[in-house]
TrEMBL record, chain A:
PROSITE patterns: ACYL_COA_DH_1. It holds the Pfam family Acyl-CoA_dh_M. Residues 131-226 form the Acyl-CoA oxidase/dehydrogenase middle domain. It comes from the Bacteria. SUPFAM superfamilies: Acyl-CoA dehydrogenase NM domain-like. This is Alkylation response protein AidB-like acyl-CoA dehydrogenase. InterPro entries: Acyl-CoA_DH_CS, Acyl-CoA_Oxase/DH_mid-dom, Acyl-CoA_Oxase/DH_mid-dom_sf, AcylCoA_DH/ox_N, AcylCoA_DH/ox_N_sf, AcylCoA_DH/oxidase_NM_dom_sf, Mycobact_Acyl-CoA_DH. The keyword NAD does not apply. Residues 12-126 form the Acyl-CoA dehydrogenase/oxidase N-terminal domain. It comes from Cytobacillus purgationiresistens. Keywords: Oxidoreductase. PANTHER family: ACYL-COA DEHYDROGENASE, ACYL-COA DEHYDROGENASE FADE34.
From TrEMBL, chain B:
This is Acyl-CoA dehydrogenase. The keyword Flavoprotein applies. Its EC number is 1.3.8.7. Residues 199-318 form the Acyl-CoA dehydrogenase/oxidase C-terminal domain. It comes from the Bacteria. InterPro entries: AcylCo_DH-like_C (IPR036250), AcylCo_DH/oxidase_C (IPR009075), AcylCoA_DH/ox_N (IPR013786), AcylCoA_DH/ox_N_sf (IPR037069), AcylCoA_DH/oxidase_NM_dom_sf (IPR009100).
Length: 384, 360
């Protein structure tokens, strides 16, 4: 049983130094024009070169064992890294899912061969993954998925489709949650498995879905008799639901559920200070108590996760509060500094505002909608 | 509301419904000017509402005009209907005349236009930003300085440099720059520039509020449709309590927007709008963010796609709430007027009934 209390994280001198290193790296990259700070950069900022660079620095898979290309650093150090990257609005989308959840999934459930094959490539920033859960008729109700894999000589044949798959068009592999036994109304969570699909395999078709900004972030992916060899099943056949649920804790509690609009907040403060706008600063600063609290909560969850605690409920709670905060920043910004938000403006603030507003609805949908999360929280609290 | 109100609304609705399809809105966003739609609106007299027949209009009043704008918001009509109507009214007030071609305007106090009389014409310098639809327009209504006097003129845009910019609904909001160009045969009209720029701002703010109320109505319709059609966990979405809360909040905010707009339009028709229009714009702007969020939440990922039509409305809500003054802008206007006014209480301002309290 987990209490509604989270551990308080304190940083060691080493960790502080590490933060300084990351910060100066990012500062140099920005000055060199490698990237432009963007809101929601873990969805919309994909740069293969930037991911490679992070890989070379040992900043992907940094908590993983060294024998698999990892850095054996702590979860808190990884937290520092990810929050610095997001606060800077750096283009981290390409490797994000592999670093955040696929790596840990392999470490927990993967075979030795899988770990040796995939983890070093991921850590180098050369191998990207996408997450194939949602289907046209299975959104919140994920157990309604119909994509199926049937036995064939030496492996499986997948048929079906996934939708809203972020980054499918730039990923090398997708972790596909599918049915390896027929759907059973009375045991909806049984008979699912996680398969690693090579996106270059015959029968895989990726169709872009235009995001409401007009940009390309997510996709529909079709599988037509796609062959997956036996050694590409993760963990145990039929255990896909449970394995997938374990991933969600990584997915839900991280700094990306708090900082998607942080670059906007930063730019606002910058402008208000330049203008010596005291009233505006005062209003903006009213956002800080939420941010400070959420950040501490999120770090507490990271700590619990590392200790192997069950954080399902508390991660849902943090994501709910965090994503509401993210949208709140965009809503407050427009009242404090009047600009016409525009994706194509020459003015940085207008662009950051436009990104925050237009990406906003997605914050409270992806990774489990607010309504579903509140259900989890309510149930979790009642059960305690 | 004019006698022919029902008739006008009915035919306007039919035209919008027929022409303003998702395909047209998509194309308009991508650089297409819907001339055919404009011609039909002109033909039907919709761009001349608010003018008596003697003045070349089709009659009708502010109530008619703003209800048409409400419909325009509902259908996301991609032409400068509000700008043309308001430009025509204001220009007529100073003695000018406009035909049936669309126009845009930049009458705000802070634009820095200045004219120099050259005998056979004028030299014009100055610029304005975020001018609606300028790239497609032939003329712009501006006011500026002429030898220390304030004048208004309807100026051909052929003489201007246009820098294309868009709001987040991909509606043109261009910069218009006149670099000391000589314009022959221009007529200028002497005006009270404070008054005309103030009127333009208030009228446009109410236009945006009306359009947002219309868009909110459509967002509500789309949401109800989807909550009924989409099934999860074996049931329609509207069966879930969480979704019912969204629907309830959408309904509440939409009704509130419509009420705010209708009240302010009536006030304008009655000739007093200094408090009502700011309050309506503030209310509708604040509600529009909530409406957009609730509708997107209810729609799930499908609403985040370009293919679905929800974004054509929500992006307009998000754009328009900041145009012609957002909540903070009008909030400070009201705050200032509260300070300046001869000490009426807030309640007196709200009810606009301060005289009732004077007992003799
Ligand atoms: C930007 C973005 C990126 C995404 N990336 C990925 C990805 O990489 N991989 C992937 O697999 N998926 C991805 N998704 C999909 C995401 O996981 C789904 O959008 C989410 O699970 C909701 O499903 P849905 O969109 O079908 O909405 P629905 O499930 O149809 O829900 C619509 C509305 O109904 C509500 N609702 C549903 N059931 C209930 C209930 N029982 N009680 C109360 N309310 C309910 C929901 O909360 C929501 O408000 C992404 C989505 C977005 C927006």
């Amino acid at each position: 049983m987990i209490k509604l209390e989270l551990p308080v994280v304190k940083f060691s001198q080493d960790q502080k130094d590490f933060r300084a290193t990351i910060r100066s790296f990012l500062q140099n990259e920005r000055l060199a024009g490698t990237f432009e700070s963007k809101c929601d950069s873990w969805l919309s900022g994909d740069s293969i070169e930037f991911s490679r660079k992070l890989g070379q620095k040992g900043w992907i898979g940094m908590t993983w064992p060294q024998e698999y290309g990892g850095g054996e650093r702590s979860a808190i150090e990884r937290y520092i890294l990810t929050e610095e990257l997001l606060a800077a609005g750096a283009p981290v989308a390409a490797h994000w899912f592999a670093d955040r959840q696929t790596g840990p999934l392999f470490l927990k459930y993967g075979s030795e061969e899988q770990k040796q094959f995939f983890l070093p490539q991921i850590a180098k920033g050369e191998c990207f993954f996408s997450i194939g859960l949602s289907e046209p008729n299975a959104g919140s109700d994920l157990a309604a998925i119909r994509t199926k894999a049937e036995r064939t000589d030496g492996g499986w044949l997948i048929n079906g489709s996934k939708i809203w798959t972020s980054g499918a068009h730039i990923s090398h592999y997708m972790i596909v949650l599918c049915r390896t036994s027929p759907y059973d109304q009375n045991q909806r969570h049984a008979g699912m498995s996680q398969l690693i699909v090579d996106m270059k395999e015959k029968g895989v078709t990726v169709r872009p879905i235009q995001f409401l900004t007009g940009e390309h972030h997510f996709n529909e992916v079709f599988f037509e008799n796609v062959f997956v060899p036996d050694n590409r099943l993760i963990g145990t056949e039929g255990n896909g639901w449970k394995q997938g649920m374990a991933e969600l804790a990584y997915e839900r509690s991280g700094p990306e559920r708090i900082l998607s609009t942080y670059p906007l907040l930063e730019e606002m403060i910058h402008i208000l200070r330049e203008n010596e706008d005291e009233a505006g600063l005062k209003e903006t600063i009213a956002l800080l108590p939420d941010l400070w609290t959420l950040r501490n909560m999120s770090m507490g969850v990271a700590k619990y996760l590392e200790e192997g605690q069950d954080v399902n409920m508390i991660a849902a709670l943090v994501k709910d509060l965090g994503t509401v905060f993210e949208t709140n920043v965009a809503e407050k910004a427009r009242l404090i500094i009047s600009r016409i938000p525009s994706m194509s403006s020459n003015d940085r603030l207008s662009r950051l505002m436009a990104q925050s507003i237009l990406h906003g609805p997605g914050f409270t949908l992806r990774g489990g909608t607010t309504e579903i999360l509140r259900g989890i929280v309510a149930k979790g609290v009642v059960a305690q | 509301m004019s006698e022919s109100y029902e008739l006008i609304m009915d035919s306007t609705n039919k035209i919008f419904k027929h022409y303003c399809t998702k395909e047209l809105l998509d194309r308009a966003e991508n650089g297409h000017w819907p001339q055919e739609l404009w011609d039909v609106l002109a033909e039907a007299g919709i761009i001349s509402i608010g003018f008596s027949e003697q003045a070349g209009g089709v009659g009708g009043d502010y109530i008619d005009a703003y209800n048409i704008l409400k419909l325009a918001g509902k259908y996301g009509v991609p032409v400068p209907l509000a700008e043309t109507l308001i430009g025509k009214w204001l220009f007529a007030e100073v003695g000018g005349q406009v035909g049936d071609i669309p126009l845009t305007l930049a009458l705000q106090n802070d634009s820095n236009f200045s004219f120099v009389d050259e005998g056979d014409g004028y030299t014009l310098g100055g610029s304005a930003s975020a001018v609606p639809w300028a790239r497609y327009m032939e003329q712009i209504l501006i006011c500026g300085d002429l030898n220390g006097k304030q004048v208004a003129a309807l100026v051909p845009l052929a003489h201007a440099e246009i820098r294309e910019e868009n709001n987040i609904a991909a509606e043109p909001r261009d910069s218009v720059i006149f670099s000391q160009v000589k314009i022959d045969g221009l007529t200028v009209y002497q005006v009270d520039s404070v008054l005309i720029s103030e009127k333009s701002l208030y009228y446009l703010a109410l236009a945006k509020a009306a359009m947002m109320a219309g868009a909110a109505e459509r967002v509500m319709e789309l949401s109800l449709f989807y909550a009924n059609e989409r099934q999860q966990f074996g049931r329609s979405l509207h069966r879930f309590q969480g979704i019912q809360h969204h629907i309830a909040s959408l309904a509440g905010e939409t009704v509130a927007c419509i009420t705010a707009v209708n009240t302010a339009v009536q006030a304008l028709q009655d000739g007093q709008y200094k408090t009502e229009i700011p309050l309506a714009k503030m209310k509708v702007s604040a509600a529009s963010g909530k409406i957009a969020m609730a509708a997107h939440q209810l729609h799930g990922a499908i609403g985040m796609t370009y293919e679905h039509s929800l974004h054509h409305l929500t992006r307009r809500l998000w754009s328009w709430r900041d145009e012609s003054g957002n909540e903070s802008y009008w909030g400070s206007v009201l705050a200032k007027s509260l300070i300046e006014k001869n000490s009426p209480t807030l309640w007196e301002v709200l009810t606009d009934e301060q005289n009732l309290l004077i007992v003799d």
